[in-house]
Amino acid sequence: MRWRRLGEDVDPLLLADDWSCEQNTDVSYNRCQTPEETCADSDDEIVYTTFVPGSIVWAKQHGYPWWPAVIDYDPDSPEYFVFNNSVDPLPSKYHVAFLEEPVTRAWVCSTHLKSFHRHSADSINKKLKNADMSLKLEGSIKMAHEALALGIQERIRNYGFCQRYRPQKAEGPAVP
User: Fold this and answer.
1) Is residue 140 part of a domain?
2) Contact at 8 Å (CB) between 91 and 110?
């Protein structure tokens, strides 16, 4: 998916399956007779991805249930996806910030990510036996729905890791 083509605040995951030219909010390109935008990039410089920064997803890590997360840039690098090797057509992992408090983050295999709005918690998670975990998941799902109401740039600003991370203060004697 060429994110730049759709505009910086359009979440490609939320586009209808039967999307047509007339639904484009850019009036310069909302007729199918209008030629596509020209692109100065060569095909070698274009990356096709399933998710873009700000996409709300279900992410699965070993030992944990599927959990709502936002695709986000890794604060240790400028990347939000990585490839296994140079010939892979699609990224193998995406960086996510989990929608929970306190915020956590991880690199998650693309096979362990699903579009949030296309899957319900019941369809991907078995009934959680831990009541505490169920309550936390409910709060995270609520946070995901709040994030979906925003444009993708605002989602990163409000729900990204760097915005929500609060380092734990070290306990110990006060230094004079």
Assistant:
1) yes
2) yes
